[in-house]
Amino acid sequence: MEYLDAANLQSRELNKLLKQKLQKNKELKLKNPHSLHNIGIGLEMGEVIIEGNTGFYAGGFLNGANLTIEANAGWYTGDNMMAGEITIKKNAGCNLAVYQSGGTIVVHGNVGSRLGYGMKGGTTIVCGSAGMWAGQMILGGRLIVLGEVGREVGESMYKGVIYLKDKAVEAKLGGNVFIDDLNKEEIKEINQLFSHYGINEEASKLQALRPLTSGRHQYELFEIDLQAEEARKYSSKSLEELL
Amino acid sequence: MKRKKAKDVQRGIWNKETLSAIDNKASSGKHRIRGCGSTRAMPNFDDIVVLPSQLTRMSIDTYREKCDTRTTLGSRSAKKPLVIETPIMISGMSYGALSKEAKIALAKATAKTGTVISNGEGGLLKEELQNSYRQSIQILPSRFGFSKDNIDAADMLEFLVGIGAKPGLSGHLMGEKITEEIAEFRQLPVGIDLHSHPRHGDALGADDMVVKMDQIRQLTNDEVPIFMKIAAGRVKDDVKIAAKVGVDGIIIDGAQGGTGAAPVMASDHLGIPTMPALVQAVKTLEEANLKEEVDIIISGGIKDGADLAKAIAMGADAVAIGTAAMVAMGCRVCLQCHLGRCGFGIGTQDKKQRENLDIDQAAQKVANFIKGMTNEAVLLAKAAGKTKLKNLEREDLRAINTEASAVTGIPLIGTDYVFSESFGYF
């Protein structure tokens, strides 16, 4: 397998080289990425194994290539991804899979907050835990989190589904979602995914989070909450005194 | 002296509008949503006049001599800058807020006049792309219908941060307009009230945007000009940051900007008007020595050739029109866009009402309007002695009242005084 040393390269030069080399080689190994931003954006084919940490936007707009990050990934990894695969062996930062519209992302460690913000399609599997606001305002696709999730999970999701193993999820739900069981087909599909990516887990242990879209005005949006009764304690006189 | 009867007394601030606003809140407990943006009176380009050429310079013949309006945008770092025949772009109005017919008509109008149309929030309509002369693609926080394919189709990209009608808020599209067609296009459930994403999920701060900008440049092979659309607020800071992020130009949307649906509160009380925003943007870029590099497109209530000429004289490179183009198609600014019942077939998704808009006729009217507006601006420019529209300069302007003078730094008519910080040419 051919090695490419990124130690002295800017992301621009690196991406050009990657594109050129992947025309000939099917596989490439990338040494010394040193958390460079924008690694492997928009790649359409081939397989790249990155032996180190990546910075922001690794695999952004990925369009068919296969990316493996052997260490940690920075923020916005897999943003606007369209097709292909990203595997992250350790942890990922915030906003993983933001606006993802296709392909698959697998994270073996934990991820930060806002996982899959505005996601439109594809699949993202997080084997560890995810931070707060996971799956906020998603328009499609599926998110799978096998560890714990943070608060406000699935806030205002329009479409799509979030599968969770966290048993305490009820206390962390965002607005406009409900907890549901998986149907047989979903269990089958997800078990297939697990075996394909070598994840030792069973889909029937998961719960599904789905959007409430039963009609207009069902969206629970921010409402002003004026608590007049609560405020009485700040009054200098009690009600009895006044009367 | 006869005493006035109570019914004849003017009610001052307690006018019909105030009463209606209070009634509305009293019954709903919510803020009011309305289309078309703000209806408030604000300082605007009508408070400025252009100085004609007399003995100091020679006038250019209105009827026989040429005045160039061709405009190049985004040449700071894009390899393929956008060249349009007149500095009037059609600003981003979404398919969803507007009907498919209206979008096609606007696109056809750009083909007739050689200018650019922006796609707006709802994704890129195939028919719009096929019919437009040049296509601008907005990158919005919601990314409805957005993908790499859109970037490939773009002649210009707009990284949208905010719009003048509701700066700091996200897009609204009321349930009446989310028909099956629109829902499919945007990947949404049918008939929900949409309050779209408020922030870019893939660039939370200005420092991230620097990296994001590099990403988009790489994806476009550095060919496509990238603009940033910001609502006018802290213009000085925003323009500096946008320039540092590395954009080719900035689209500044003033508080008079229109929209399909916005809280009245946001339209009327958020952001500063178009003209002062332009002045501050130009000043800021000049101070940073970037005026020649970073282009400015100004929008928000631009309605005729005078606005265009004065905006260009103040330092804009182009203007963007929205409401004015809709009015050219037949819109009468009824402020009810959000209800989706537009009888002219413009701001509606209702099949029957959409039939009311004749696409070719509407396209011709918008094209005529853009041509007429260009004509008006050229008339002023020639009278001021210019053979190129962009040669208009601040020195050719005067303010007709102290407010406009104070806001713009342009001298008051009949004086050489500037009633604030000067614009820097005396």
UniProtKB/TrEMBL annotation, chain A:
InterPro entries: Glu_synth_asu_C, Glu_synth_asu_C_sf. One of its GO terms (molecular function) is oxidoreductase activity. Keywords: Coiled coil. Residues 46-171 form the Glutamate synthase alpha subunit C-terminal domain. Residues 4-31 form a coiled coil. The keyword Coiled coil applies. The keyword RNA-binding does not apply. This is Glutamate synthase. It comes from Halanaerobium polyolivorans. The lineage of its organism: Bacteria, Bacillati, Bacillota, Clostridia, Halanaerobiales.
Automatic annotation (TrEMBL), chain B:
One of its GO terms (biological process) is glutamate biosynthetic process. Keywords: Oxidoreductase. One of its GO terms (molecular function) is glutamate synthase activity. Residues 45-386 form the Glutamate synthase domain. The keyword Oxidoreductase applies. Belongs to the glutamate synthase family. This is FMN-binding glutamate synthase family protein. It comes from Halanaerobium polyolivorans.
